[in-house]
Design a protein that fits this description.
Immunoglobulin-like; mainly beta; five-stranded mixed beta sheet; six-stranded mixed beta sheet; btk motif of tyrosine-protein kinase itk; globular; 2 helices
Length: 219
């Protein structure tokens, strides 16, 4: 779409602010103690690579074979799949999460504290009156590192949550909306986007997903 995009107004609930502040303090403590950095790995820590279920027990765990998805999760036309193995698709979220990795490598049991990670969020929508409400289930969302852009027929968003996880969505909406009457609310358990319909059309779906690959890591 060539129609102009505008930034949506965002409100943040007090409980969401508290959750974010607690997460920041915990993150600072972890970094100060070396956890998530170059310090020791706690037994029971699961591999960070998408699709790998290996768990760290001791140093021998570092030698395990890691089968993972190097690509990004994609949601398109109701199907869910990994960008690295597009032939394997499903409409079921739980089945998608169980897809075995397509690449073999080395397990990663520690986060790079400076690196934003690819992430996946569950989302759904409902209609009430003249509004469509989109709920994205992300916690500890940082409003200073989010963007919500809207035109009458397109929504583009990027959300940073849990301090290091990044989720983005770009959708050509099923129907037209009035951007000036739309808004975003960041709540403790989710992000809620209220879209005001430009007409009385009933939406059978959110729209055509132009891209819901999560943002890749910066090189």
């Amino acid at each position: 779409s060539t129609e102009a995009m505008r930034a949506l107004p965002v409100t943040v609930s007090s409980s969401a602010k508290v959750a974010l502040e607690q997460a920041r303090k915990l993150r600072e403590q972890e970094l100060a103690s070396g956890e998530g950095g170059s310090g020791g790995i706690k037994p029971g820590t699961q591999c960070k690579n998408n699709g790998c279920s290996n768990v760290y027990e001791d140093e021998k765990s570092l030698q395990q074979k890691c089968r993972f998805h190097p690509g990004a999760p994609v949601f398109h036309e109701g199907y869910k799949y990994w960008s690295c193995c597009k032939k394997k698709k499903t409409t079921e979220f739980s089945e998608f999460l169980s897809f075995a990795g397509c690449t073999e490598g080395t397990c990663v049991f520690q986060d790079d504290p400076t690196k934003k990670k690819k992430a996946l969020c569950r989302y759904d929508f409902f209609q009430q009156g003249g509004n469509v409400t989109l709920s994205i289930y992300a916690k500890k969302v940082d409003p200073d590192n989010c963007s919500f852009l809207l035109s009458p027929n397109r929504l583009t968003l990027s959300i940073l949550f849990d301090m290091v996880n990044n989720f983005s969505l770009d959708v050509e909406l099923f129907g037209r909306v009035d951007p000036e009457a739309c808004k975003v609310a960041i709540l403790a358990p989710k992000v809620e986007i209220t879209l005001k319909k430009a007409d009385g059309t009933s939406w059978s779906e959110l729209g055509n997903l132009l891209s819901s690959e999560v943002e890749g890591d910066e090189d």
